[in-house]
Amino acid sequence: MKIVICEDDAQQRKFLQSTIVHSSLFQYENVEIALIASNPSEVLAYIQEHRADCFLLDIELQHEINGLELANTIRSKDPFATIVFITTYVEKLRLTFTYKVAALDFIVKNEPDLAENLIDTLHVAYQKHQNIHAQQIEMTFQVKIGEHIKFIPFDDIYCFCTSPIAHKIELKEKSGVYEFFSNLTDIEQQLDNRFFRCHRGYIVNLQHIHKIDSTYRKITMKNGSICHYSYGYKKAFMNALTSTSEIISK
């Protein structure tokens, strides 16, 4: 979980950083403070290039952009980001409902149990992060490329097809093509119902089919890739397509 802190008071920034780093939360390897910012501009620049999971934002930032406006921008870029507001004035919390940013929690600076409240809230944020991460993994295909494992979202995959190289599969997705050792039978077990085995040599993503040529049993994917469906799969394939729109049949 990557944490971003935005607080214009240097003493408070130091306190927040120290509290987090020395807490039990830091026992987890995937928890880090990605950015400690003194003004919203630093955060805005950061989220243009990077993603963070949890934002601790002071509401009363001495800047042309306040913490609530910053949160609104963060939320528009990432609906799943966790936002925690920190404030000196309890009455300011009412404003958060006006901005409708769905904050996880509100922490008041001058409370005696500030550190405890902060860590409790971050533990909740961490659990939320883990749940989201688990859901995202469930919706991805894992492929080993060299010494690395790549997680490719199902939505990005156009098709799988057998490679001219024996025992290899080609995976065609939005950012390119990957080749790896496997077989379509094993791959089929790892996919959900948006995918269909339409031929002994092809599995297609039904949501990414652009055109079907029934004369030659040819499938054109949205990226231009050409696949085929066999006569034996035809009826089941056409039934699977009934729930899929935006397909041009020839």
UniProtKB/TrEMBL annotation:
Domain of life: Bacteria
GO MF annotations in UniProt: DNA binding; phosphorelay response regulator activity
Organism of derivation: Lysinibacillus sphaericus
Domain spans labelled Response regulatory: 2-124
Described purpose of this protein according to its UniProt entry: Required for high-level post-exponential phase expression of a series of secreted proteins.
Modification 4-aspartylphosphate, positions: 58
Gene3D superfamilies: 3.40.50.2300, LytTr DNA-binding domain
Any Pfam family matching the protein: Response_reg
Keywords from the UniProt entry: Activator, Cytoplasm, Phosphoprotein, Two-component regulatory system
Coiled-coil residue spans: none
HTH LytTR-type domain residues: 141-243
Name of the molecule in the record: Response regulator transcription factor
Origin organism lineage: Bacteria, Bacillati, Bacillota, Bacilli, Bacillales
